[in-house]
Automatic annotation (TrEMBL):
This is Branched-chain amino acid transporter. Keywords: Membrane, Transmembrane, Transmembrane helix. InterPro entries: Brnchd-chn_aa_trnsp_AzlD. It holds the Pfam family AzlD. The chain crosses the membrane at residues 6-25, 37-55, 88-106. It comes from the Bacteria.
Length: 107
């Protein structure tokens, strides 16, 4: 029963936050500093998701070796992104390096 109450509480809070911003729309004016900070949220969230998966692909201790295909693919994607600034090419190269590394190097 406690789980149901917790889940319903989280749903109500989430709905309240999202609907408030949606209903107030343009009437809310964020200061420039807040708008600048909100621009970094997607990058921060993606980094928080991807880095642990690349560094510790099997959980536990970090695997900072050449045998970690996820890390090699992520590093290749970082290089391509820094050079080209093209998201689709970055994803394609990262996945390509990951699968080639896993299939050819780690065989």
């Amino acid at each position: 029963m406690n789980y149901v109450v917790v889940i319903l509480g989280m749903a109500v809070i989430t709905f309240a936050i999202r609907s408030t911003v949606f209903l107030l729309g343009e009437r809310i004016v964020f200061p420039p500093l807040v708008r600048t900070a909100l621009g970094f949220v997607p990058v921060t969230v993606l980094t928080a998701i991807i880095v642990p998966m690349a560094v510790t692909p099997h959980g536990g201790a970090p695997e900072l070796t050449w045998r970690n295909a996820q890390l090699v693919g992520a590093l290749a994607a970082c290089v391509v992104s820094a050079i080209t600034r093209r998201p689709l090419l970055t994803i394609a190269v990262g996945l390509g390096v990951f699968f080639l590394w896993q299939g050819l190097v780690l065989r």
